[in-house]
Amino acid sequence: MENENKAAVMDAESSANGYEVIHSKSAVFYDLYERKSELKHQTHYCPGCGHGIAHKLIAEALQDLGVQDRTIFVSPVGCSVFAYYYFDVGNVQVAHGRAPAAATGLKRACPESVVISYQGDGDLAAIGTAEIVHAANRGEKITVFFLNNAIYGMTGGQMAPTTLVGEKSTTSPFGRRPANEGFPLHMAELLATLVAPVYIERVALCDNKNIMKARRAIRKALELQKSGAGFSFVEILSPCPTIWGKDPVEARRWVYEKMVPVFPLNVFRDCQPQMPVNNAPLQRPTPDVLEITTSADYAAEPTRQHHHHFKDLSIKIAGFGGQGVLLLGQLLTEMGMREGLEVSWLPSYGPEMRSGSAHCHICLSKERVGSPLISHPDVLIAMNELSLRKFASHVHDGGLILYNRDRLPDDFEKPRAQVMCIPAAEIADKLGSAKAANIVMMGALLEETECLSAGTAMDVIEDKVKRVALLEIDRKALAAGRQFIDHEAHIGAVTQPDGFAE
Ligand SMILES: Cc1ncc(C[n+]2csc(CCOP(=O)(O)OP(=O)(O)O)c2C)c(N)n1
Ligand code: SF4
Prior knowledge:
Low-confidence stretches: 1-12, 490-502
Bound molecules: thiamine diphosphate, iron/sulfur cluster
């Protein structure tokens, strides 16, 4: 990332004509938009679109405030869905309308970051009405830029909650009628009825003077967040020449002549609210909430610290619901936490209580985990054949697959990863409960990869399993999984003599 403005390019021809055109681009934008499949030097926005102007004003403000490296930009669904093509900051693209909820999580998890929720009027004022109202009401310390172009742009011009009375759209072909579709929603005014927000302003991208006002409002909102203030919201009336069927100049004029009278430009809130004094901490630390012990608690016990020979290790566990797939993931993440690692656990499961598919992603890392989603795990624990067939090819070359059977299916196309067949269910069954197959797999994983210590595993299991009989089976299952790797894996339980699938 550069910290200065990108090189200004002087138009030589215009210079010869006695004037200079200076094109400059904020360093907060990527040089080239590599994430686009084509036309990587230009944005996907239509000529004259307000999104382009708003992006530029935001990028310049982030650069001038020196917060590029700690900004997280949450893009919505709508024409600005691809904002992450352009902004060289942390980017998250979220489901329709959910940007304020995602921004809430990001800001609470990383309070030092500057979190922007960027949304259109369909996204914010239709499907996302609840999210924005509640985020504002909670006074989340985020900044929301609300691009109001009075229409759904991306999907071809359906009526938005902000569509003007009488304005035609594909879903109000005779013009919006209040008796049928209600009146336009005034989001800035609506949010200004709440106690918590610190700054709410409406601006318009209709002429240079107003664009400069928008520039100031955008800066102010971001400055407030930088200084630790609460919820800031800037509504930006924005031209959409394409859907409105106007050229860019006419579209700007339309913003000024038609939109501004309905959505008056104003500062609706500019003060820090008096929050009730509460001596208790507002947010309890996560370990408190989860009632778990952290690495800090273990600092006094150096024996707890396991030697981790990896920087990060990603594991996918997959199988049927009821096989303890998700629980195994939780146990591993808790073990990682107790050993002082950064961890994440991302579950995914069907609606069925039993026998639906279930899988989870686990990251164990010495550094903060960027994303809990794993496309190519280092290790796959496949608790059934379906999961093996579905996910084996996702595992890194040279990665490891632990398969819950004594051999691979005959017609199985060999992956490049090492495969170890462990009849975990059978082993667990002999110990007293097939349900402990997940713990057999845990033992095998720990023994084969040495990623976490068996001592930590037993401590976690003892804390979690309250039934004495079950605890005894789990203890044996853990040992059996480890023993299987040590004593049996090399004498035929592994499909190929060297443990590799080909
Ligand atoms: C759950 C869901 N419902 C509906 C859609 C279809 N959809 C995509 S964008 C959009 C509205 C976009 O309008 P707006 O938020 O005003 O943004 P603009 O494109 O005008 O910038 C809709 C309804 C969707 N993608 N997901
Ligand atoms: S359709 Fe409208 S909002 Fe979407 S990019 Fe084009 S001008 Fe912008």
